[in-house]
Task: structure prediction
Amino acid sequence: MNTLTLLPFIVLIAAMFLMTRSAKKKQQQASDMRNQMQPGSGVRTIGGMYATVKEVNEDTVLLDAGPGVELLFAKNAIGAVLTDDEYNRIVHGIEHELKSDADIVPDDASSLTEHDGPADAAASDQAVDLGKKDAAEEPAADAKTDAEKAEKTDAKTDAKADAEPTADDEAKKTDGGSEAK
Result:
């Protein structure tokens, strides 16, 4: 036989070997994790339920899901053994203490605008122009624009009154009538 003919079979066998090897490795890790369970450790089942291990037997695990609620599960039904910090954060909502002494970001920006020294004094002496008009100028401008709008509206209504009704206007008047056509 030619080596080119055997090459696809060799590649296929190698791929199967690698896939089964990784699957066996994952199964071994899961088995080790389940064997490390001890009473008092927090777990998550494959169904997504969080509980505390109360008793570990050869093939089963007795879980405490709440006050007076004990559940018997197969060891294979345990999806993950959680650390104490992770279990308390998920189940009880308790955050562990921050381990760094770094500055904590404030909830608002007030601390970002507070300055000590001459920069703050110079900023308070100068007026900041944000493009807003003075209160005295605003009513005059509003009155002028309102008067202009009224004149334009009056001119439009006068033009409509002078114009003769169109065919569309007459059709609208007769469409709602009770007479049959």
User: Anything to note?
Assistant: The chain has a mean pLDDT of 75.
